[in-house]
Amino acid sequence: MEEQLAPWRAKYPAVPVRTVVTHESAAFALEQESRRARLVVVGNRGHSLLAGAFLGSTTVQLLHHATCPVFVARPRPA
Rounded to two decimals, what is the model's pTM? Predict the structure, then answer.
């Protein structure tokens, strides 16, 4: 993960990024991290037009319980 983040950290050095490894569910861990974050970014795979219209359980839990804004990143349409 650090290798994948390196180019983005170099491009946007002023944006703080913290890597957390946990045994908790993604939804619970991100919800807890939202307490000290200014923004939580989550992805949505959107495998097809219909599937892309729905959000995953992690995203839904964050939208309901995060204490900071949540940005849902979706892939560009083909």
Answer: 0.69
CB-CB neighbours of 62 under 10 Å: 22
The pairing of beta strand 70-73 with beta strand 40-43:
parallel
Question: CA 35 to CA 24: how far, in whole Å?
Answer: 16
pLDDT tens profile 8-45: 999 999 988 888 889 999 899 999 999 999 999 888 76
**Best CA proximity match to 44, nearest among 8, 7, 3, 76:** 76
**No. of helices (H) and no. of strands (E), the chain:** 4, 2
CA distance 9 to 2: 10
User: For residue 52, what are its two tokens?
Assistant: 């892309």
